[in-house]
Write a structure and sequence with these properties.
alpha/beta, 7 helices, Nucleotidyltransferase, domain 5, globular, six-stranded mixed beta sheet
């Protein structure tokens, strides 16, 4: 495989996302780097991912995948980039699909009740690609891609199962793409974000990923998993590069 160009943040901003959303993301990232509040001796993300092949999926409004790899993987055409993490690389990308699409159709109470009734051992037969709106960036890069949410079963529990399966399939497809591009093979996935609390989704994801899937617990009261891990990574980065750089 030929040498791929290395990605900058500006290379992977999504043309399907409004400019103000992209700017908000840049502002958040800058804030995370400028406020490293986690102790210097604690250099792993909140997920405790430490060995190549281990990964973390953030199940928030969107799906964010990070796979610890011995090999750097960059593919700007898919929005894939790698962060240097000690001896290894955190390779990953982010889909526009995620928990945000669930909120378009279900309340929190409905998600809780309907998820409890899902038979996660069998597939629904639905082939959804649950985007919240037009446009995808990873694992498919297509700003014109439309959500695929048909056929719609009359049973809302079955509809939810189809959505969760569609999201799990996107996650599995994302990790397969990372491995196809040279990342270390996936061995386990830790789950962060609000979606990690959904046990039915976790079981469906494990069926699609074919590796152990666990939930990340915040190690300090009042701290959210994703923010805690981001701050710890930022702290590690400022130790390695105290002068900072735009490159």
């Amino acid at each position: 495989m030929g040498q791929r160009s290395r990605c900058r943040f500006s290379d992977i901003t999504n043309p399907a996302y409004p400019l103000q959303v992209q700017k908000a993301g840049e502002k958040w990232a800058a804030a995370a780097v400028s406020q490293p509040t986690i102790p210097k001796s604690d250099r792993l993300p909140a997920t405790r991912v430490s060995q190549p092949g281990e990964a973390v999926t953030s199940l928030g409004t969107s799906l964010v995948l990070k796979l610890l790899s011995t090999t750097r993987v960059d593919a700007c055409e898919y929005g894939i980039y790698s962060h240097w993490f000690g001896r290894y690389w955190l390779a990953g990308g982010a889909s526009n699909a995620g928990g945000g699409v669930l909120r378009q159709y279900f309340s929190d109470d409905e998600l809780l009740v309907l998820s409890a009734g899902i038979d996660t051992a069998r597939a629904s037969g639905l082939d959804y690609y649950p985007l919240p709106s037009k446009g995808e960036r990873f694992p498919i890069n297509d700003p014109e891609m439309l959500p695929r949410l048909e056929p719609r079963p009359p049973n809302r529990g079955e509809f939810l199962r189809g959505l969760l399966e569609g999201l799990a399939n996107i996650e599995a497809r994302g990790y397969r793409l990372l491995m196809e591009l040279g990342a270390t093979p996936l061995t386990a996935v830790a789950s962060a974000g609000g979606g990690a609390r959904n046990d039915a989704w976790t079981r469906i994801r494990a069926r699609h990923l074919q590796v152990p899937v666990t939930r990340v617990l915040a190690t300090h009261a009042g701290e959210q998993e994703a923010c805690y891990g981001a701050a710890r990574l930022a702290c590690f980065g400022t130790e390695l590069f105290p002068g900072g750089s735009d490159d």
